[in-house]
Model the fold of this input.
Amino acid sequence: MRWHPHGYGGQRRDPDQVKREGWHEQGVLAVSADDQRLTWPERELVRQLGEKLYGRRPMEKEVRHG
Done:
């Protein structure tokens, strides 16, 4: 049996699981501005919040999905 330091080895968590746990445990929300589960107004709000907090994205592509 191989020994691994805490936090190494084992199974890697799914990215959505990490995001879900971050929200539940820390109140931190990680969401993509292009997440197709969101409506256009929701994606636009995410984009606007990101720009307000962190500035415009370099070479931002204007992607509009009906």
